Amino acid sequence: MGFTADLDHAGGEPHPARWHALLDEARTAGDSLGAIVECTASGVPAGWGAPIYAKLDADLAAACMGINAVKAVEIGDGFAAARLRGSENADPIRVGGRFDSNHAGGITGGISTGQDIVVRVAFKPTSSIRTPVPSIDDQGREVDAVTRGRHDPCVGIRGAPVVEAMVALVLADHKLLRRAQCG
User: Which residues pair with 8 in a beta bridge?
Assistant: First the structure.
């Protein structure tokens, strides 16, 4: 089984030079950026998961939502699939277990298909920034909150290996569940 994780700014443009420029700009301004981490797990056999309880996609989503600063999880085409017709979103299977597409992200009906499992996780921009943000103090008075000290312009960078680890843990759990159920 193999894992890869790619990082993208929520506004697009995954190019490394563009990323460095965006991070430097946010750091200099005392601000922060959100990020989308895409994790792909290859080599997962078909049949892991269940159609109701212990759904593989539900377990992956729950585990990834448990990561600090995560605000959304998407499996396969996720939100983009909602804009398609069923005929456009289908993943037709062919003789020999080959699929024409992978819109479902390697999981159909809660069960792995044998295709790459694709999970995208959205990290919010960190709220600990040097830019003043309206808030209230312990007396209920309006104040501007400003974070002093170390500034992390994008928690998604640190989150990429955490997403990989979380996906690996869920898949390991499902491997053991499959072995317990099927021998």
Answer: 36
In angstroms, rounded to a whole number, what is the distance separating the alpha carbons of residues 39 and 63? 13
Distance CA 15, CA 9 (A): 10
DSSP E strands: which ranges in the chain? 2-9, 35-42, 70-75, 107-108, 111-112, 117-123, 133-136, 142-145
Alpha-carbon gap, residue 37 to 46, rounded angstroms: 24
Q: Report residue 15 CA to chain centroid gap.
A: 19
For residue 49, the SS3 value is strand
Q: What is the pLDDT of residues 127-180, one digit of tens each?
A: 888 888 888 999 999 998 887 767 778 888 889 999 999 999 999 999 999 999
Q: How much is the pTM? A: 0.86
Helix (H) or strand (E) holding 86: helix 86-89
Burial 168-178 (b: 16+ CB within 10 A, else e): eebbeebeebb
How far, CA to CA in Å, does 100 sit from each of 72, 80, 112, 133, 175? 27, 18, 16, 49, 26
CA distance 142 to 136: 4
pLDDT (tens digit per residue) in 52-95:
999 999 999 999 999 999 999 999 999 999 999 999 999 989 99
